[in-house]
Design a protein that fits this description.
Blueprint lengths: L2 H7 L3 H11 L4 E7 L4 E8 L4 H7 L1 E3 L3 H9 L3 E3 L22 E8 L2 E9 L8 H15 L2
Antiparallel strand pairs: 1-2, 1-6, 2-3, 4-5, 5-6
Helix pairs in contact: 1-2, 1-5
Amino acid sequence: MDVVAEIQAAKELSEALGCIVRGFGADTGTLHLLDEDGLLHLKALSGEFPPPVLAVIREIPVGKGMAGLAVARAQPVDACNIQTDTSGDVRPGAKTTGMEGAVVVPVFDDTRVVGALGIANRGERVFSEEEKAALIAAGRALAAR
């Protein structure tokens, strides 16, 4: 079964996110959706996150951090190694996750950005353009739920 089919078969968002994390060989994942207040709200989580990180990622302003930037730019934001990233896209708190390779893509409902889908690995990782496109497709499948 492919990842999109697994997402469609999942009963809950957290189960669907777990399918994505496993399908991409990642260690953690997050799904944030835009709410009426204009903030990204954490809707699903896969993997372990330190409590201080959870407190910060429950609500994210558009334009802040990797998830907020992916939504603002309507394009993927990635880091080969969060721990050593100097691009300015990675917030200092992200380093406390212990993750290194990460990518966050916008979640689209047709052409409208409705959220952000992120996955990360404990080790360095460069995500290919094909992987980013597949992750965007997975996000579209989540939005269609």
